[in-house]
Each structure stands twice: as structure tokens, then as C-alpha cells.
Design a protein that fits this description.
The complex is a heterodimer of chains A (about 375) and B (about 90). With about 375 residues, chain A is an alpha/beta fold. In chain A, about 40% of the residues lie in helices and about 15% in strands. Chain B starts with a strand and ends with a helix. Classes of the chains: A alpha/beta (about 375), B alpha+beta (about 90).
Amino acid sequence: MKFVDEFRDADKAHALAAKIAALCEPGRQYKLMEVCGGHTHTIYKHGLEDYLPEQVTLVHGPGCPVCVIPMGRVDDAMALASEPDVIMTSFGDMMRVPGSNGSFFDAKARGTDIRMVYSPLDSLKIARQNPDKRVVFMAIGFETTAPSTAITMLRAAAEGLQNFSIFCNHVTIIPAIKAILDSPDLRLDGFIGPGHVSTVIGCRPYEFIARDYGKPVVVAGFEPLDILQSIYMLMLQLAEGQATVANQYSRVVPWDGNVVALRAIGQTMELRPYFEWRGLGFISHSALKVRDEYASFDAEQLFAVPGVRVADPKACQCGEVLKGVLKPWECKVFGTACTPETPIGTCMVSPEGACAAYYNYGRLTRQRVKEVSTS
Amino acid sequence: MCLGIPGEVIEFVPDQPDLAKVDVSGVKRVINIGLLADETLEPGEWVLIHVGFALSKIDEAEAAAALQFLEGIGQAYEDELAALAESRIE
């Protein structure tokens, strides 16, 4: 296992932490946002915040596709699933996301035909096997997942399938980052860029963050040392007064992304004028819809979708958590009314959500250590 | 669905240039490799798989590291593998 040790070595982690500490200017606080839920997961699992000097705070961003789906879209999906002869298909992660009338799991228990699939291509197979049914795929995810939906639609078109459509909820990461940069609530110093999204979009789309906002971005891998290395790279830029986009994860992420994937998305989908994100509200040009040329595969064209906006439960503070304004445990219902078994908010649903990650690993962070020691 | 999981390419599916059989932690299933159309891919090479699609080629060291990371995650990876085992892409 020598391969893995390269990414896990505790001595290397401490050495990196010391280098990061040495770069801190006295009296300055550093807030770095990890955009991706996978990174949040690694940070909590390995207690990386405990390695960092007190001046460096990690802020957890909105990069969890399940977490940002607003309640109204879940309700819309339920309405679609209840249409005659419909088989709704969904990734497992989506099944527990609460709408105002419960989750997909609840609807399934009530007899609605909702099936869990691993891939949109599995959904396509269900359509082939059930020619007298109308199969809808609940398409969610960032640019990592959108190419799979795009290729699946192209495949359906090539086969001439008449009973397959997608309910498109794909979102794009850049407008969300921009919304956070423009938010008055939060002053960030730099970004740990998402890993898998960047395999598709590459590193160039982040350049505006460095150019227009003067903040560095480092696209990072998912191992603990990847993240510490990325924080070091960010701190080095901040110490030198630089702001550029760097790629720490070049062993997986090509600078220009995956051209085939981008072409497939562009062929089948286009930007919506606006889309609602849970907690972030409506963001311009932040999501994808099916192009008119593929309207016969667009559930929003084929069915009457209610499109009602549903406010989040009052007690839920997912919005503040998604923007990084609140830490998970600062939410009023965290760990009491809201747990992974009975989630109120989406951040508690997905294992990549900040609340679920924190709940599952229960790390004592610096703040909590302080609270415990002073109480 | 948000996980990227490493798989070793075992063989290509005859007459289906977009499909290949891969081995993910002992689970052998067919995935779509159409997104890697611009690259060469050989049996024995590793890919990062997301919802049934190979997203990028990775080397063996990256695959080993990613695998151990995923095994450390526990339930989420078990759920992903269980979902993959149910998958019948063709």
C-alpha cells in the first residue's frame, strides 16, 4: 500500500501544517471555502481543521448536488411520479430528500412507482422493458453528472425511444460561486476548487475568481494530503499577494476539462434564465434545461409540472450552512430534530452534505473544544 | 451518486464501442466509456467512474488511493457498490 501512504502520511501532514502556519501573517484571519461536498467529507473524517492554525478557517460551500435542490422541485418530481403510467427513476441519494409531502421513499411506500437506479442508462433500460409505461429520470447533479444525462438522451434519441424523458435539475457550479462571492454575508480569501466537476469543466472557468475578485483558487484532490497541500498553495499565493488558478489534482483533472463531455451537454441542454437553489435563492443562468430539439425527452414539456415555490421549513438553516455563514452545529435543529435518519434539511441527507458529514464523524473542532473547555 | 469510483477495464463489449466491462472492488459491470472517446483505452487500465460513465483515465496509484479513501468512507461506498451491482447497462 505504498501508493496510499503517499497521500496519508501523518508526518507529511504535520510538515504541511507547519508550513501553512509559517505563512500566516500575525493578526490576519484566513477564510478558505471548499466548494465540493466530497472535500467537506474528507475534512471532517480526518479532522483536518485540527491540523490547521487557529487563523485559518475552512468554510463549507454549496457543492453537494442533493443539498441544493429546493423543496419545490422535489414536489414537482412527486407530481410527475403520480401521473398515470409513470415510472419515476432516481439516484439513491435523492430518495430521502424531503419535499412538503415527504420523500421519494415515502411516496414509494404509498405505492407510487419510484425506482432507484445507479445510472441514467439503467433508467433507459427500464424504458425499453416497459414500452407501455412512461419512464422519467430525475436528473440531478453538477457538471460531473450532466454529461451522463446528455449521453443518455442522445442514446434515447438514436434508438428512437418514445417513452423516456428526464426531469432536468442539473446545476452549474460557477454561478453559485459567483453568488457567494457577491454575498455581503461572507468575506472569503480563497477557494479549494472542486475535483470531479473540474474533470469535466477544466480549470479555466475559475479564472474570473482570480482576475475579477482577486482571490486564488486551487483545484484539489480528495485525499487528506491533497487538501492540506491545496491549502498550502492558497496560503502561499496569499502571502505573496498573488491570485491565480492552480491545479493540485492534475493527476486526474486536465486543464481544459473533458471536451467530449462538454460537447454532449451543449448539444442537448442549454442554460435556464434562472433557477432556485436551496438556501441561495434564485440565481441567474445557474442551471440547465433540455434544448427544444430534444423536447420529446423533456418531462417539463411532456407533463404539467406544477412549478410551485415552497419555502424551506422555518427551523431549517441549510441556506446559511450552504453559504458557509453557519457551521453545521450552529443550526438550531442540528442533531436534535434534524438527523441523518430524519432529515429536515438537505445538508443532513447526503453523506456529502456538511451537516451529515459533521454528524457522522462528530469531530471536536477548535471552536467546540473552546466551548467545551470554557463551559 | 456523487462518488467517483475507480474501476479496472477488463474488456470491451463487442459491437458496442461505447461500452466496456470494468472491475470495481470485485464487482464486474458494464459502463459507458463514450466520454473518453478522445483517448486510447486498453484493458488493464483504470478509469474514474461516475454514475455508470468513465469520466477520466487514472493511473494505478491514483486508483489505489481513491479505493482506500472510498473504503474508509464506509456506508456511502457500500451503497454505491450495491447500486452498481444492481446496474445492467447495455
